[in-house]
Input
Amino acid sequence: MPSIKVAILGFGTVGEGIYRILNERKEEIKKETGHTIDIVSILVRDTAKERLATPGTRITDDVQEIFATGDIDVVFEAIVGEEPAYSYLSEAIEKGCHVITANKTMFAQHGPALLKHAAFRGVQVCYEATTAGGVPIIRTISGLLPTDRVRRIRGIFNGTSNFILTKMREEGIPFEAALHEAQVLGYAEADPTDDIGGKDAFRKLMILSALSFGRQPDWQDVPIVGIDGVTIEAVKDASAGKLRYRHVADIALDENGALHGSVGPVLIGPEHPLYGVDGVDNAIIVDTDHLGALTLIGPGAGMYPTASAMVGDLLQIVGKREAVVVTS
Ligand SMILES: NC(=O)c1ccc[n+]([C@@H]2O[C@H](COP(=O)([O-])OP(=O)(O)OC[C@H]3O[C@@H](n4cnc5c(N)ncnc54)[C@H](OP(=O)(O)O)[C@@H]3O)[C@@H](O)[C@H]2O)c1
Output
């Protein structure tokens, strides 16, 4: 049985999820693809940290140890921040590996360069998990593009912000109390700045812009407003008028071909497709020439939704068998 050798960079929430799914679904993956998946190496920052046992897999804090063997077919990347993730993935592509990433901070900035590099080297870069976690938005838009044209993308891209706005409305509590609840429940990071300040949603919007329109607007031209300025009084006033606050990232193509993006809280009424999307869910509306508006709703984060999107990417790569270097 031919095997595909993979490395996982990062073994936190997402990295561990990838490991678990690849093991739990071993037989199904073998049946579906005809290949076994061999998790050769895992990269972490601190090898002394106590973590899930991974028998037969090398755990290292030295990425060169992973690349030196020259036998890795696919690199999963689930570390945090632009660097060293971008450098590691550039090196992986240069060495002929396919890459699958969940790292939106890195991909919003460097995705176009990685995709260009990968095309030159004849490998694939998959990034479904960077945007809306388990919601298959990248696959959906990629599937539409050959026959249709995307006009506008808007949606709720940050589950933490949506959870906080929902709590404020349902329980009548102020922003700080709702944020605290999100942190206690593990929905918000210890440092929630990028979530509540709108940067996280902005990055996902830029990733979708590059995919859908082949380019991103100048980042400075996109106003980014978070939910931290939304008061409980404003939420109550909105509710009294049957309106709801949603934190919406929006990008549209105008008739002259210019892109207009914005990220911030907006008031919407009951007829709007985002009106009923409460809690940590993400929701994305894609407007196209042929379909009108298509709405996708689902879990935007979490170990299994995110890792499952990445394993889905692997199956997509393996499906294109001629592109994969398979070792026996
Ligand atoms: N969590 C989610 O639901 C979710 C959803 C979508 C996308 N993402 C993205 O997925 C990525 C991973 O998120 P996460 O929640 O799994 O993060 P996490 O729990 O903080 O785990 C990060 C992992 O990366 C390792 N790491 C960090 N910097 C490293 C470095 N310089 N060299 C080697 N290893 C390094 C850490 O090593 P140690 O364990 O030794 O500290 C840890 O194992 C992020 O880019 C995030 O934005 C996450």
